[in-house]
Amino acid sequence: MLPEGRALRPISVQGRVHDQSGKAIPAARITLKSGSGFLYSGQSGAEGLFRFPDESLPKHPPVPLVPGSYTIAVEIDGLPQALLSELPLAAGEFVVLDVLLPIPAALQNDVGPAGVAGLRTAPLPPATSRSNYPGVASTAPEPSPVDLPPETIPPGSANFQTQADRWWISMPEWRRYATQPDVPYVKARWYDPFNRNRFKGDYPIFGQQWFLNFTGESITSAEVRRLNLPSGASGAGGNNFPFFGRGEQSFSSQTFRFSFDLFHGDTSFRPVDWRIRFTPEFNLNFLQTRERGLVNVDVRKGVNRFDEYVGLQEAFVEAKLRDLSPNYDFVSVRAGIQQFNSDFRGFLFSEEQPGIRFFGTLRSNRINYNAAWFYFLEKNTNSGLNTFEKRDQQVYVANVYFQDFFRKGFTNEFSFHYNRDDPSIHFDDNGFLVRPAPIGLVVGDGVLPHGIRAYYLGWTSNGHVGRLNVSHAFYQALGHDTLNPIAGRRVDINAQMAALELSVDKDWIRFRTSFLYSSGDGNNRSGASRTDGTARGFDTIVDNTHFAGSDFSFFNHEGLRLTGAGVNLVGPGSFLPSLRSSKEEGQANFVNPGIWLWNLGADFDLTPKLKAFVNGNYLRFDRTEPIEIVLFQRPIHHAIGTDLGIGAEYRPPLSENIVIRAGFSSLIPGRGLEDIFTGKTPFAGFASVKFQF
After folding, report:
1. Which residues of 581-603 are buried (b: 16+ CB within 10 A; e: fewer)?
2. Considering only CA atoms, which of 501, 524, 664, 680 is closest in space to residue 594?
3. Poorest-confidence range of 359-373, 418-432, 442-456, 598-612?
4. Per the confidence metrics, is the pTM higher than 0.90?
C-alpha cells in the first residue's frame, strides 16, 4: 500500500524492437488499443525504442493510459502485423517489452531509417518485464546493456562536412520579423561592435589564432565650480574680500583613447598565449578662471588656459609562460606601459606606468597573484597623461587574492608595496614647483630635495556575506623620509588607514554606509623641541579612490588647494588631506592632518537604463597641527563639514558603449574649513558623455 497522500505514478509501457542479432529496428509502427477502441500510436526510434505515453509523438493523445486490457501490434508496410492480443495494465504499472523480429540473412543489409524491406514478422512475445510502483521485483530481468551488441556508427563523412576555415561559415538566411530580417543570425558589419566583428576579436585577423580587439573611446566632459581661491592681490586677512577672489571656474575636456589589442589564442576560457597592446590617448582641455596666478605661475598668462597633449598610456607585450592545470590555471608575464590597480577601490596605487608584471591563477582561478615592478614616467600636468620623461620613482608590488575566503562570494587580498621615491627637483608644466613641495624647509644651500622609502602592508576585501555586501581596506605604512619639509628633519613613518563599506540591496535600491580613517600627525613641528621624529600621517603612492560617493562627493571629486601655500589640502580623486603639491607629480607626505569620514548613501536602479545616486559625507580632521604649521595660523578646528551630492547615470543601449553621467555636489563648511577659507559654500556640477566602440 502506498503511503497516505501519495499518488500512483501514471501507467507506462516501454520497449525495444530488434532482430535476432540484437540490432535495433527503427521506424516500426506500433499501436496500442484498449477494448473500447482507445488508440495510441507511434514509431520506434533510431535505436528501436518506443514509449507510451510519449508527448514527443505527434499522434499521441494528450491523456494518460488507464487501467484495463490492451492489444499491442507492430506493423511494417506490406507485411503482416506482429500482435500481442492481451496486455493487462494496472494502476501505476510500468511495463517493459522486448520485441524480437527475426530478419532473414538476405535482408540483413536492408535495415535503414524507413525500416526493413521485405521483413517477415513473427508473433509478438509476451512482456518480459513488469513492475509496479514504487518498486516490485520484475518477473524477468531486462537484458544488460553490456550484453547487447554494439551499434554500428556511420563514418564521419556521412554526418559531417569538412570546413577549411570554420570562422567564415556563412550564416543561414532568416526572416522571422519583417522589421528585423536578419534576427537572430545578424550579419557582420565592420562598424557594429555588438555583433560579430573582425575588429572586436570575433574572427581571426590572420591565420586561425591571431585576433585583434580594437577599442575606441571618446569622453566629453564639462564642469562648473566655485572654490575658495586667492584673489591674486594682497589682503589684510582671511575674511578680507581682496584676499579671496570670486572662485568661479569652468573646465571642459575632450579625450580620445584608442586601444589596439593583438593576441594569439583561441575562443575558449584558456588564457592567451601572446598579446601586444598599444594605447595612445589624446586630450584637449580648457580652463576658465577669474583669478590670476592659477593657470600659470606667470600672472601675465591671464585667467584662461587651453592645452592639448598626446600620451602613450599602454604599450606592452605579454606571454604565457606555463599552463599549471587542466582548469586553465597559468602564469604569464607582461612588460611595458600597463594599467595596474592594486586593490578593489583604488585606495593605494592606481596607475598606467612602465613595468614588468608576473601574474596568474591557482586552484581553478580561486587564487590570483601579482608580482610587479614599475619605473615611473613624469605626467603632463593639465591632462594627467604620460610623458616620455623619466622620473626617479620605483614601485614594487606583490599581492594575492583568495576567492571564497571565509565565505562563498567573499574575496580577500593581501599585499605588500614598496615606494622608492628618490630625491629630485621638478617644476610642472605651468611653472609651479612640485618636487619638493614648496612648504616648510625646502631652501638651504639651494632647493633641498628629499627621498622617501615607504613600505605598505595591506589587507582588503570585496564581496558579500549572505545579503550583506562588504568591502574593506586596511594599510600599515612604515619606512622613512630623509627630509620632511614640514618637520624639517628626517622622520620615520608609522601610519595607518582603514575603510569599511556595508550595503544591502532591497529590490531596486542599494543602501550604503561607509567609514574611512587615516591617521594624522600632531607631533612634528618644524624647529620645535617637542618632536618624536615619527611621521604618523598616512599617505598613499598614487590613489584614485572610488568610495563614499566618488564623483558625487565634492571633497573627493574636486580637491581643495590651501591658499598661498603651494600644496593641496586634498587632491582630486582622493579623500586623504595629505598636503601634497600634486597627487601625480609630487611626493608622498606623511606629516599631514589625517581624516575621519562617515558616509550614508543610496543607489537607485530607476529603470534598466537609468540609475540615480544620493550621497552624504561628514568629515573631520584627525589632527590639525600640520595645517597650522603650513598656514602659520592657530587655532584650526577639526570639523571639515558636510559633503552632499546627487547624480545620475544613463546607458541607452544597456552597455558601456554609450554612458551619460551628471552630478552636483557641495561642501557645507564646518568650523575647521571656515578657519582655513571662509564660510562660503563651495559647489560643483559636472556632466560627461562617453562613446565606446
Report:
1. bbbbbbbbbbbbbbbbbebebbb
2. 524
3. 442-456
4. no
CA distance to 412, 460, 466, 467, 526, per residue, from 463 (Å)? 9, 11, 10, 10, 44
Task: Look at residues 69, 76, 89, 88 and name the one whose alpha carbon lies nearest to residue 43.
Answer: 76
Under 8 Å CB-to-CB from 614, ≥6 apart: which residues?
A: 552, 601, 602, 604, 645, 646
pLDDT digits 0-9 by tens, 112-167: 444 444 333 334 444 344 433 333 333 344 445 555 556 666 666 666 666 666 77
Cβ partners under 8 Å of residue 630, min gap 6 = 439, 440, 486, 562, 565, 567, 579
Q: Is the pLDDT of residue 235 over 50?
A: no
Joined grid coordinates for residue 659? 554612458
Task: Show Cβ contacts of residue 461 under 8 Å, excluding neighbours closer than 6 positions.
Answer: 344, 405, 410, 411, 412, 413, 470, 471, 472, 473
User: Quick count: other Cβ atoms within 10 Å of Cβ 419?
Assistant: 24
| Amino acid identity, position 658 | I
Burial class of residue 191 in the structure, from the number of CB atoms within 10 Å of its CB (0-12 exposed, 13-18 middle, 19+ buried): exposed
Cα–Cα distance list, 267 to 196, 197, 203 (Å): 13, 14, 10
Q: Taking the alpha carbons of 287, 290, 294, 299 in that order, is the dihedral positive or negative?
A: positive
AA identity, residue 119: L
